[in-house]
TrEMBL record:
It comes from the Bacteria. The keyword Membrane applies. Residues 102-137 are annotated as: Disordered. It comes from Consotaella salsifontis. The keyword Hydrolase does not apply. Pfam families: PhaG_MnhG_YufB (PF03334). Signal peptide: none annotated. The chain crosses the membrane at residues 6-28, 40-60, 66-87. This is Multisubunit sodium/proton antiporter, MrpG subunit.
Protein backbone atom coordinates (compact mmCIF):
# COMPACT_ATOMS: atom_id res chain seq x y z
CA UNK A 1 0.00 0.00 0.00
CA UNK A 2 2.88 2.37 0.77
CA UNK A 3 4.26 1.85 -2.74
CA UNK A 4 0.91 2.80 -4.29
CA UNK A 5 0.84 6.02 -2.23
CA UNK A 6 4.41 6.86 -3.28
CA UNK A 7 3.60 6.23 -6.95
CA UNK A 8 0.50 8.41 -6.66
CA UNK A 9 2.56 11.16 -4.99
CA UNK A 10 5.18 10.93 -7.74
CA UNK A 11 2.48 11.21 -10.42
CA UNK A 12 0.96 14.22 -8.66
CA UNK A 13 4.37 15.90 -8.39
CA UNK A 14 5.05 15.20 -12.08
CA UNK A 15 1.62 16.58 -13.01
CA UNK A 16 2.32 19.67 -10.92
CA UNK A 17 5.63 20.15 -12.70
CA UNK A 18 3.87 19.88 -16.08
CA UNK A 19 1.27 22.47 -15.06
CA UNK A 20 4.09 24.73 -13.86
CA UNK A 21 5.75 24.34 -17.25
CA UNK A 22 2.45 25.18 -18.97
CA UNK A 23 2.09 28.31 -16.81
CA UNK A 24 5.66 29.39 -17.61
CA UNK A 25 5.14 28.88 -21.34
CA UNK A 26 1.87 30.81 -21.12
CA UNK A 27 3.56 33.73 -19.37
CA UNK A 28 6.26 33.81 -22.03
CA UNK A 29 4.12 33.28 -25.13
CA UNK A 30 0.73 34.91 -24.55
CA UNK A 31 0.24 38.39 -26.01
CA UNK A 32 -0.94 40.68 -23.20
CA UNK A 33 -0.97 41.12 -19.44
CA UNK A 34 -4.46 39.74 -18.96
CA UNK A 35 -3.94 36.44 -20.77
CA UNK A 36 -0.54 36.00 -19.12
CA UNK A 37 -2.09 36.57 -15.72
CA UNK A 38 -4.80 34.04 -16.54
CA UNK A 39 -2.22 31.41 -17.45
CA UNK A 40 -0.14 32.06 -14.36
CA UNK A 41 -3.03 32.05 -11.91
CA UNK A 42 -4.98 29.08 -13.23
CA UNK A 43 -2.17 26.69 -14.10
CA UNK A 44 -0.13 27.90 -11.13
CA UNK A 45 -2.98 27.16 -8.72
CA UNK A 46 -3.44 23.64 -10.08
CA UNK A 47 0.32 23.01 -10.06
CA UNK A 48 0.74 24.16 -6.48
CA UNK A 49 -2.26 22.12 -5.37
CA UNK A 50 -0.94 18.96 -6.99
CA UNK A 51 2.54 19.32 -5.50
CA UNK A 52 1.16 20.08 -2.03
CA UNK A 53 -1.17 17.07 -2.15
CA UNK A 54 1.79 14.92 -3.17
CA UNK A 55 3.67 16.31 -0.17
CA UNK A 56 0.73 15.52 2.10
CA UNK A 57 0.70 11.92 0.85
CA UNK A 58 4.36 11.27 1.66
CA UNK A 59 4.57 13.42 4.80
CA UNK A 60 6.20 11.80 7.81
CA UNK A 61 3.67 13.17 10.29
CA UNK A 62 0.04 14.19 10.36
CA UNK A 63 1.00 17.78 11.17
CA UNK A 64 3.03 18.10 7.97
CA UNK A 65 0.20 16.65 5.91
CA UNK A 66 -2.33 19.02 7.47
CA UNK A 67 -0.07 22.02 6.84
CA UNK A 68 0.31 20.99 3.19
CA UNK A 69 -3.46 20.62 2.80
CA UNK A 70 -3.98 23.99 4.52
CA UNK A 71 -1.54 25.52 2.03
CA UNK A 72 -3.61 24.09 -0.84
CA UNK A 73 -6.78 25.58 0.62
CA UNK A 74 -5.12 28.94 1.27
CA UNK A 75 -3.64 29.11 -2.22
CA UNK A 76 -6.91 28.15 -3.93
CA UNK A 77 -8.73 30.84 -1.94
CA UNK A 78 -6.23 33.66 -2.48
CA UNK A 79 -4.65 33.19 -5.93
CA UNK A 80 -7.78 33.77 -8.07
CA UNK A 81 -8.82 36.78 -5.98
CA UNK A 82 -5.40 38.39 -6.16
CA UNK A 83 -5.18 37.79 -9.92
CA UNK A 84 -8.62 39.35 -10.36
CA UNK A 85 -7.67 42.42 -8.32
CA UNK A 86 -4.38 42.84 -10.20
CA UNK A 87 -6.20 42.64 -13.53
CA UNK A 88 -8.75 45.25 -12.41
CA UNK A 89 -5.96 47.54 -11.24
CA UNK A 90 -4.14 47.10 -14.55
CA UNK A 91 -7.34 47.91 -16.43
CA UNK A 92 -7.99 50.97 -14.26
CA UNK A 93 -4.51 52.33 -14.96
CA UNK A 94 -4.98 51.95 -18.71
CA UNK A 95 -3.16 48.75 -19.59
CA UNK A 96 -4.41 47.93 -23.05
CA UNK A 97 -5.94 44.68 -24.20
CA UNK A 98 -4.33 42.73 -27.01
CA UNK A 99 -5.43 44.40 -30.30
CA UNK A 100 -7.01 41.14 -31.54
CA UNK A 101 -9.17 40.78 -28.41
CA UNK A 102 -12.75 40.11 -29.36
CA UNK A 103 -14.63 41.74 -26.49
CA UNK A 104 -13.96 44.20 -23.68
CA UNK A 105 -16.73 43.68 -21.12
CA UNK A 106 -15.46 46.11 -18.50
CA UNK A 107 -16.99 49.35 -19.87
CA UNK A 108 -20.49 47.81 -19.71
CA UNK A 109 -20.21 46.89 -16.03
CA UNK A 110 -21.67 49.48 -13.62
CA UNK A 111 -19.14 48.70 -10.88
CA UNK A 112 -17.87 52.20 -10.29
CA UNK A 113 -14.49 51.28 -11.73
CA UNK A 114 -13.05 54.27 -13.50
CA UNK A 115 -9.86 54.72 -15.41
CA UNK A 116 -7.15 56.74 -13.73
CA UNK A 117 -5.88 59.67 -15.79
CA UNK A 118 -2.10 59.69 -15.69
CA UNK A 119 -0.30 63.03 -16.07
CA UNK A 120 1.27 63.62 -19.48
CA UNK A 121 4.96 62.97 -19.87
CA UNK A 122 7.11 66.11 -19.93
CA UNK A 123 8.15 67.24 -23.37
CA UNK A 124 10.73 69.60 -24.69
CA UNK A 125 14.50 69.54 -24.66
CA UNK A 126 16.17 67.88 -21.68
CA UNK A 127 17.66 71.22 -20.56
CA UNK A 128 14.13 72.52 -19.82
CA UNK A 129 13.39 69.64 -17.48
CA UNK A 130 14.96 69.44 -14.01
CA UNK A 131 17.15 66.41 -13.40
CA UNK A 132 16.18 63.84 -10.80
CA UNK A 133 18.76 65.01 -8.29
CA UNK A 134 18.12 68.74 -8.64
CA UNK A 135 16.29 70.73 -6.01
CA UNK A 136 14.07 73.69 -6.84
CA UNK A 137 14.92 76.84 -4.85
Amino acid sequence: MIDVIRILAALLALGGALFTLAAAIGVLRLPDLYTRMHAASKAGSVATGMVMIALALVAASTGEALRALAAVLFFLLTAPISAHLLARAAYATGTRLWPDSVLDEMPQQPTGLRRIKLPPEPSGPPADRPSEGSVKP
